[in-house]
Amino acid sequence: MIRVVTLDSFDEKQIAKLCQTLYTAFGVGSEHSGQKEVPADLSDPLDAEKLLTEMKGIRAYEDDKVLFITSRKLKERELAGGKAPTPGFAQYNKSRAIISTHGFKDLETSFKPVARNALQQIGHLWGLHHCLDPRCSMYPPWTPSFSSGEPTFCTFCRDKSEQKLRLAKS
Amino acid sequence: MPEGSASLQLAVGDRVVYPNQGVCRVSAIEVKEVAGQKLTFVTMHREEDGAKVMVPQTKVISIGVRKVAGPEDVKQVFEFLRSDSDKADLDWKMRARTNQDRMAQGGLIGMAEVVKGLQVLSELRPLPTKERELYDNARHLLVSEIAAALNTSDCNAEDAIDLVLFPPGRERPKRTAAEFAPRPGEGDEDLGLDADLLGLDGELDLPPDEEEAPAEEEESSEEAGEEDEEAEEKPRKKAAAMPAEGGAEGAPKKRGRPPKPKPEGAEAAAPKKRGRPPKPKPEGAEAAAPKKRGRPPKPKPEGAEAAAPKKRGRPPKAKPAETEAEDQDADLDDDIEADE
């Protein structure tokens, strides 16, 4: 089950549409599990890694994946390869991920890139790595062509995610 | 032997890398009795999923188990990934063998080479399924080890690698097959193929200085004997991988006994051919027609030269004795007409 948790107010219709897209991509039930408040000690831009570990009070089963959505900016990360733009972050092979709609006007006009980003972060939760195919949602998100693609997976990534889902405990 | 595993002292709690499996943590070192023998086993748990692996301590190094790379090794990996020098091998067999070797050895640089090589190749054409899987496995192992080495999350480690492989704001370049073509001097010469293996005779119109080279090479390799052949395989492979520097000075040093000094006047001799020497021909047989292949023709009976060609199909039914003589005459007439 994929649980979408909003950290700011969003259009309900668009969130329902996003849940529908996630269901189509993964074949797993997806629902909006309400809105939560960001911990008070976190300031803008949000530290995604810290936020994911500090968020409390999210009810989910062991195999559930939780996707947080915020309109606030996420802090760029300083990595060994350089400064990483951070439209989203996921705990690889675990259960929590976050995406940001910062930089987009609203969810309706920029649905595709947001949905693609959501697919990628949940893909990371299922153990998927970045892909070589520019049409796949697992393609690195900082590339220029990322935001223009459809929220779908390539054959390899879809097969792999299905395999991971079959191996899940519940 | 894998890099950095010449001497490996393991203790409980150490993080190690098991080739093709990933990062493991040593959970116990204990003596167990197996088939009447007391063996010391190193028990490891894979960090990714907790799978348990037990390895006899004597086999740890030969398997390729090594400690997790340090920050210096990671720096080297990033330098390698940044470099634009790596060209993918277009020969799929060679590529598959090299990549499998790298994966089996389990070195950090080896995995980076697999990832980079296949990524560069994917800029030319989409990867086939097997190589796509190999790419994914190599990437997974590389990411998990870099994450362990830098003590960061897998997501950060992967983004760090991809920031180098897919620089922000730039699309991946489209490559052409011409970019992967071997440069002059990197061709078949470096693979250690001599004229015989390529199916060429020594009768090529080559300049005299180039004609000498294969003959020397053959002699030296023949004299070195079979024992050296196995030992030479690996250096040959290495030599094939190394770019040719051109000229005699840059050529890799040949192994084995040096060639015997040739007697004077033997310079103009044709290069020695491999295989059984041809039989000496009898005198006067030079003008003989080349031997035809296949079954020799049956000796024809005398007077049968004018015989009619054998007819196809079912033989005519046996006719009564009275008409036999007349029919034979008629058949003969038909045949003569047909021949005319």
UniProtKB/TrEMBL annotation, chain A:
**SUPFAM superfamilies for the chain:** Metalloproteases ('zincins'), catalytic domain
Spell out the protein name for this chain.
Answer: Peptidase M54
List the InterPro entries: MetalloPept_cat_dom_sf, Pept_M54_archaemetzincn
Q: Does the keyword Metal-binding apply?
A: yes
Report the record's Gene Ontology biological process terms: proteolysis
| Domain of life (superkingdom) | Bacteria
Q: Any idea which UniProt keywords this protein has?
A: Hydrolase, Metal-binding, Metalloprotease, Protease, Zinc
On whether Cell wall biogenesis/degradation is a keyword of this UniProt record, the answer is no
Cofactor(s) this protein cannot do without = Zn(2+)
In alphabetical order, the GO MF annotations are:
metal ion binding; metallopeptidase activity
Pfam families, sorted: Peptidase_M54 (PF07998)
